[in-house]
Write a structure and sequence with these properties.
- The chain has eleven helices and four strands; from the N terminus they run H-H-H-H-H-H-H-E-E-H-H-E-E-H-H.
- The protein is mainly alpha-helical.
- The structure holds a DNA duplex.
- GO terms for molecular function: DNA-binding transcription factor activity, RNA polymerase II-specific; sequence-specific DNA binding.
Length: 421
DNA sequence: CTTCGGAATG
DNA sequence: ACATTCCGAA
């Protein structure tokens, strides 16, 4: 009983959480969250849908604009205008926590989040830890009651995500990798600007690096952000074991370790393209132009509200991660960093690996704008996904082999390994 | 154009 | 710590 409950709660929870970073959409989500408490899923969704309608407009706009803009800068004007609008009504991903929540009714939202968080977190006992890390820490050993040290990393990047009102603290303290993950879960960006090329392996491609960079810049309020700059940040991730580069393919990177519970949007089982064909990444998705020259972007409005949150520790199945925590918490599984001047032995940053990001299913998510939300199925799926996610730990640096390995692992794991559960 | 790191800076 | 900027070099 409690188990079920928790899951449900979680889901809701992240719905609200997600809001925070919602690039463009957020408010709607918040509302739902509130409702959640009182109502069961279906209702929740319905509500969300309603909420969505409002913002829907913006989203639409955004989408359109971005789509056209993505290809070239010529559309700058349009883009700018769009952005402006966006900003006006929805501060993209930035500070939704405070403002939005407040406006909407933080009272409600906050409580909900808080509660959930507490429940989940409480178990884990992670006080200042980022959601993702939370699990890991616990598993690892975490020196449980050692919050004595808390002072150590009080301000950590995503420390208070949970307890605080939302996830990322007020400003938008989302790391780039987090942002990317979110994007990958965002219907608006996912297939179009960024997409999984092999979800199991954590490999993704920045189709339209420019657009992604722009979004990132928007998020950080750095108008001048560009792929080159963002790329540098990305490169730093290699050393930190957060990302790896998939060589051969151009804008393709791989999460060294990816969250156990990411829910992938779009595609159902995905077309894992291993690395056989080097460059055929698109297929599977029927209609995305991606980088197609023609500017006719059909972008409809999928809008994407991505929700993400941390998963609760499944009650019945506690994730006993098998993660080798050799170096304490190194996410990257002790990957060797070539230079590694300093020995590792510390990985403060929340690595994606441990994080549990749960996303919402696709479908309609809350932002269905026009259509009414229906989500029973989705809910189920989400749950299932959450439970059945696999370990995909370590993604090493190198592609093909790794990929295959991952696949194998996955399969094997599903067969009997267990790890995750 | 993309990719890679070093270096300085916030 | 985590980027952002700038930069010379593949």
């Amino acid at each position: 009983m409690s188990a079920m409950l928790q899951q449900t709660e979680l889901i809701f929870e992240f719905a609200s959480d997600r809001v925070n970073n919602g690039l463009q959409l957020d408010e709607h989500l918040a509302s739902p969250a509130v409702i959640v408490e009182q109502i069961p899923h279906s209702h929740l969704l319905s509500y969300s849908g309603l909420a969505c309608e409002q913002t829907h407009t913006d989203n639409h706009l955004l989408t359109t604009v971005e789509g056209s803009e993505s290809g070239d800068e010529e559309t700058m004007e349009t883009l700018v205008a769009a952005e402006t609008l966006l900003n006006m009504d929805s501060p993209d991903s930035l500070s939704l926590d405070q403002q939005h929540y407040t406006q909407l009714g933080d009272v409600i939202t906050l409580p909900v989040t808080h509660q959930l968080t507490v429940s989940v977190e409480g178990i884990v006992g992670a006080l200042g830890q980022p959601q993702w890390v939370t699990l890991q820490r616990e598993t690892v050993a975490e020196q449980p009651k050692k919050r004595v040290k808390k002072s150590k990393r009080p301000e950590s990047p995503t420390p208070d995500i949970i307890f605080k009102r939302g996830k990322y603290s007020k400003g938008n303290t989302m790391y780039l990798w987090q942002f990317l993950i979110e994007l990958l879960q965002d219907r608006q960006a996912c297939p179009r600007y960024i997409k999984w090329t092999n979800r199991h392996a954590g490999i993704f491609k920045l189709v339209n690096s420019k657009a992604v960079a722009r979004l990132w810049g928007k998020h950080k309020n750095k108008p001048d952000m560009n792929y080159e700059t963002m790329g540098r940040a990305l490169r730093y991730y290699y050393q930190r074991g957060i990302l790896n580069k998939v060589e051969g393919q151009r804008l393709v990177y791989q999460f060294a370790s990816l969250p156990k519970d990411i829910v992938f949007i779009s595609d159902d089982e995905d077309q894992e393209d291993q690395a056989n064909h080097e460059d055929n990444d698109e297929e599977g998705v029927p209609d995305d132009p991606e980088e197609s020259p023609p500017s006719s972007d059909q972008s409809l409005d999928d809008l994407g509200s991505y929700e993400h949150s941390f998963p609760p520790p499944p009650p019945s199945s506690r994730p006993g991660y098998q993660r080798s925590r050799q170096t304490s918490s190194s996410p990257a599984t002790a990957q060797r960093r070539q230079p590694s001047p300093k020995s590792n032995s510390r990985s403060p940053a929340p690595s994606p690996a441990q994080c549990k990001t749960v996303i919402r299913p696709p479908g309609g998510s809350l932002i269905q704008q026009q259509h009414l939300p229906i989500v029973s199925a989705e809910m189920l799926r989400t749950l299932q996904n959450v439970q059945s996610l696999q370990p995909g730990h370590h993604g090493s640096v190198f592609r093909t082999a790794q990929l295959l390995g991952s696949l194998c692992e996955r399969q094997a794991a599903s067969g009997g390994q267990t790890t995750s559960q």
